[in-house]
Amino acid sequence: MASVNPFDVSDSDEEAERRPNETVDTERSPSEGAPGPPPGNAFSLPADAEPPTLLLSSNRTSPSGEGMSVSAAATSTMAGGVETRVSVDVIAAQLLRDQYILTALEFHTELLEAGRELPRLRDYFSNPGNFERQSGTPPAKDQVLGPGGPLNRAGSISTLDSLDFARYSDDGNRESDERVAVLEFELRKAKETIQALRANLTQAAESEVASQERKNFKSSPEIQEPIRPLEKRALNFLVNEYLLKNEYKLSSITFSDENDDQDFELWDDVGLNIPKPPDLLQLYRNGGSTLSSPTDKVDASVGVAFGDLPGNCISREPQKKPDLSQQVCISKVVQELEYQLNLLNSEKQSLAEQIKKLQSLALLQLGFVCTSVILWSEQSPSPFFGELTGIVERCTIMMVSNLTFSCYSRKLSPAFQQALLSFCRMCSESRLGAEVSRIADSEESVMLMLGRCLPHIVPNVLLAKREELIPLILCTACLHPEPKERDQLLHILFNLIKRPDDEQRQMILTGCVAFARHVGPTRVEAELLPQCWEQINHKYPERRLLVAEACGALAPYLPKEIRSSLVLSMLQQMLTEDKADMVREAVVKSLGIIMGYIDDSDKYAQGFELMLLSLGDPSERVVNAVHQVFIPAFAAWTTELGTLHTALIPSLLARIEKLLTQGEHGLDEHKLHVFLSALQSLIPPLFAVVLQNAPFTSRAKPHEDIPAIEVTRFPRPASPLQDMAIIIGNRELLSSLLLLYDHQLEHEGTTGWESLLWVVNQLLPQLIEIVGRINVTSSTCVHEFSRFFWRFCRTFGKIFTNTKVKPQFQEILRLSEENVDASAGNGILTKATVPIYATGVLTCYNQEEDRKLLVGFLEDVMTTLSLSHAPLDSLKASFVELGANPVYHELLLTVLWYGVVHTSALVRCTAARMFELLVKGVNETLVAQRVVPALITLSSDPEISVRIATIPAFGTIMETVTQKELLERVKMQLASFLEDPQYQDQHSLHMEIIRTFGRVGPNAEPRFRDDFVLPHLHKLALANNSQSVESKRIDIAIHLFEAYSALSCCFISEEVMVNHFLPGLRCLHADMEQLSPEHEVILGSMIKECEIKVENRGISDAQGSISIASSLVGEDAKTKFLSKMGQLTTSGAMLANVFQRKK
Q1: CA count, 13 A, side-chain hemisphere, 1009
Q2: Which residue among 284, 304, 321 closes a domain?
Q3: Dihedral sign, Cα of residue 1022, residue 1023, residue 1026, residue 1030
Q4: What percent of the chain has pLDDT over 70?
Q5: The total number of structural domains that make up the chain
Q6: Of 42-46, 711-715, 940-944, 1098-1102, which gets the smallest average pLDDT?
Q7: Which residues of 527-544 are buried (b: 16+ CB within 10 A; e: fewer)?
Q8: CB 757 within 8 A of CB 718
């Protein structure tokens, strides 16, 4: 008997294994002595065999439509002299041909029970058309009919397709409801009717192209035949399937909407009565080669000689040119060969997998034996066991290297081995046990294992240590083959920590960037962005903060279309809706990063609106982020577009002008600050544009001889993005450009320098015109514009400031010495142009010549305004702005001393009033050495108006200075104003003194208030009762009322109250009864309160001593409280000190 290949899986071998005691004659060669095929390959042929025979599927028919008989197959096989086996398919075909239907049915049942279904029998018994036909309907073309004609129709219960095969088989007496069987048959019959109708539809669709057109296409092969409706539906289905598999969900939805007449959920909707073809990827990899249907199956063990094919489909005369039918037959043979090859390859892969499993099992058993031997040798040491251990180790090496199946010589049954190993207490029934017992053997299996295990690991890790899982999650998400698992892992990453702190967020963002670098823009868009979108409205601000930061961090790795559309919209939504300051701050920074990578010029308007929106944010930290990140990035983009100085800056200037036009009665200072601060942040990018578009730019080359840039050359930048060296590229190149810039301005001029000419001829004049329109009394506006011009001049340099900026201001102010008189009444001097020029332009450089220029300008302004009797608001604004910086105190005192010694009384009077503004910021040493001597000099001035003008400054000194000697000098000077007979009739002096006392009295030293202020107010009120001029009397009375109202909140002793405060109030009340009844009512209530206090303090009745004492204590507490309240300044923060308990 010939040897049998143990890996042969033909049907004949399976039958032989089921019947081992029977003799299979077909396994023997017709020649008893002929050797069988070598055991190594079941499909190899002996050396003396005929040429290889054609392996043909037995369920295919010849061109004549007849099947191959068993005798023909046997004849052709014996002629070839090759050992063959008769396949079950050939047997089935013969049974059906000879109408042995019941035998074929029993054969089919046995094959089903053996787990090997035969397509021919399955198709035959599942087709109701083989058992019943309507009268007058011819049999199907491919229907197999025996000599007796079609099978007579049977009842639905006994129809072959509805029989319960298990009931008639050998291994069961199972019964089922016949009614269920009938319903199942009817259901199958309906489905088959639908399939038949669909087949008719297919044929109709195939024939839609006109026959004449097909002839044209055949005659002209270069013209491609148009797509048929059936082909179009099939391709649509495959395209939609490809989009869904590769996560193009939006494209799939759009594609489905455009083909709403087709159901993409069901392949049968295409209308084809054939199995679904492979997907697009498989079709592309196969390069268009014809793939056999996966449902077609064949027994590969039947060999058929090529010359014995029935019908002789291929002519043996090579001289004749084959006709069309022969070409078709050749193509079918080629297809059949390819199909056979595919079957062999698939069987080869299946065998290889079985071999691998057997090898793994053998290694596992070997490991168990080796372990047992080693443990045995350790327990019973002997030379024999040592030698045995060495043998086992050598066997192990041999097994691992050669992968043989013989690992030990014991003859234990597999069941016994399995039972023995069960005592190892291994657990594989649980999820974790299954994972532990299944060791990954490839990178892909490792990723699959991590994808399965990580969702169970993360919830059991401490919150404080969960960031340690970030590398593992990211690596798995990068390399995992399943999109759903990757999505789950990224979801875990973003939800890893409930409220991630700053360090944890940085770690997650670092991982996201690494993920984006690894997977590319497409997967970042498809996998990471949806995670951000899900958490855009999360209840915890830390999670929303993570989303905002992730949008910026991922911006360089996103597709440009997504970056400028979806991500920009997400950030805009968060900017307008999020209530957390830190989230909006991160949003603004991410928007700045987006602006650094955006390349869609249509988004300029949206970027501009986002800039204005974020600048108007109520949070200071958000506004700072705008200036540090967003505006520099946006300016860099507009520089590339060429619209920085043509669109962005002009738009801001236009909004400022519109604001000034609308705010003539009330300027919105906040909006002005927003626009002006944006302009200020645009100064460095504007200067960079000037340098990069200069005539000398091409000559700028960094080298070692160029001197380094001075540290104070540019203002300190708010962020690195506003550093000129970073904007230009490096400090060496910037240094080279600055040298050429200064040389160009000083020697060669600005001809052809368009960007600088725009700054000089358009920007500067417009800014100066805007400055002249703002309110000079608004210290905020003056300060904002002053800082803007200071940064502007420092950025553009000293030469530019001296040659381009100062001349334009001087031309408008016209302050040259020869036309000081002519400029009397010049309106521009009363505008904000004066303080902004003085504090913003003249102070940007602090050398001696610059200080002299500033001193001269202020002296000229003071002189001009004084002589022209113009308002001093512009000069006061200059002193307030400069006085805030101690560096300029000496300079301002120099200017005031110029006014003190001036020949004009008007100028001296102006200087005296300016001292009041300067005293509060100057230290006491300067006050004692420079201010008080100047004021005493002015207090003895021949002009009474000059002496009166010194009173507010003296009062301010009494309010702010603490040196006793200095206070005594001031007190003596004020006493001289009040007690000197020459001032008794000076109505203006008295009004100024009363106004000053009311202003400084509550904050002055209590002793000065009780001993000096209140007694002199009493005298002035008493003197006003006898004033004959009613206008003067009412002026004094109103000022006294304001002073007493301010002083009533202070603590006043009983003696002062009785001797000065109450008498003064009664005198004032007498005046108000005649002059102002509404004031008289208030004064009456104030007098009553004071009298009650005095009465309570003065009663000393013995019977009510206790109650009086308690009343006095209550009144004393109330008085102390009012005294505390009266001593408070305008700051509300001091209120807390009133209620503090003494320690």
Answers
A1: 25
A2: 284
A3: negative
A4: 69
A5: 2
A6: 42-46
A7: bbbebbeebbeeeebbbb
A8: no
Q: According to the model, what pLDDT value does residue 271 have? A: 64
Least confident of 315-324, 411-420, 440-449, 892-901: 315-324
**Type and span of the H or E element at 724:** helix 724-728
Burial 398-409 (b: 16+ CB within 10 A, else e): ebeeeeeeebbe
CB 852 within 8 A of CB 895: no
Residue 834 lies in a domain: no
The Cα–Cα gap between 547 and 529 comes to 9
Other C-beta atoms lying within 10 Å of the C-beta of residue 485: 19
In whole angstroms, what is the distance from residue 532 CA to residue 534 CA? 5
DSSP for 403-435? --S--------HHHHHHHHGGG----SSHHHHH
The interaxial angle of helices 604-615 and 669-681, nearest 10 deg, is: 120
What is the domain extent for residue 1037? 984-1099
Tokens of residue 1031, six digits: 């206008």
How far apart, in whole angstroms, are the C-alpha atoms of residue 211 and residue 548? Answer: 64
Better-predicted residue by pLDDT, 866 or 355:
866
Q: Say if CB 1069 and CB 1083 are below 8 A apart.
A: yes
Q: Report, as an integer, the average pLDDT of 897-903.
A: 91
pLDDT range class, residue 760, cuts 50, 70, 90 = very high
Phi, psi of 114 (to 5 degrees): -80, -5
| pLDDT at 44 exceeding the cut of 50 | no
Q: What mean pLDDT do residues 837-853 have? A: 91
For the stretch 919-922, contacts whose Cβ atoms lie closer than 8 Å and that sit 24 or more positions apart, written own/partner, are: 919/953, 919/956, 919/957, 919/960, 920/956, 920/960, 921/883, 921/884, 921/886, 921/889, 922/883, 922/889, 922/893
Cα 662 to chain centroid, rounded: 39
Residue at a domain's end among 262, 284, 306: 284
pLDDT single digits (tens) 1073-1088: 777 777 778 888 888 8
Q: Which of 348, 344, 237, 217 is nearest to 283 (CA)?
A: 237
Residue 772 lies in a domain: no
Determine the Cα–Cα distance for residues 841 and 864; give it in Å rounded to an integer: 20
Instruction: Tell me how far apart the alpha carbons of residues 950 and 948 are, in angstroms, rounded to a whole number.
Output: 5
Mean pLDDT across the chain: 75
pLDDT digits (tens, 9 = 90+) for 865-884: 888 888 889 999 999 999 89
Backbone phi and psi for residue 243, each to the nearest 5 degrees, phi listed first: -65, -40
Q: Which amino acid is at 126?
A: S
Instruction: Note the residue count of the chain.
Output: 1143
Radius of gyration of the chain (CA): 53
d(CA 517, CA 338): 43
Residue 656 and residue 672 in contact, taking contact as beta carbons nearer than 8 Å: yes
Beta bridge partners of 147: none
Is residue 331, in this structure, part of any structural domain at all?
A: no
In the block, tokens 């319903």 appear at 183
Instruction: Identify the sign of the CA torsion 1087, 1090, 1094, 1095.
Output: positive
Q: Where does residue 912 fall: left (phi above 0), alpha (psi -120 to 50 degrees), or beta otherwise?
A: alpha
What pLDDT score does 1087 carry? 81
The beta strand positions in 427-537, using DSSP E, are none
- Encoded tokens for 14: 């399976």
What is the pLDDT averaged over residues 1126-1140? 40
What is the pLDDT confidence band of residue 112, given thresholds at 50, 70 and 90? confident
Whether residue 220 is predicted with pLDDT greater than 70 in this model: the reply is no
Residue 809 falls inside a structural domain: no
Residue 194 makes CB contacts below 8 A (sequence gap 6+) with none
pLDDT grade for 424, boundaries at 50, 70 and 90: confident
